[in-house]
Amino acid sequence: MSEQQGITFFEAMGGEEGIRRIVEAFYPKVQAHPLLGPLFPEDITPVMEKQRQFLTQFFGGPPLYSNQYGHPMMRARHLPFEITPARAAAWLGCMEKALEETGMAKELRQAVLQRLEGPAYHFVNS
Question: Name one GO molecular function term (predicted).
Answer without folding.
Answer: oxygen binding
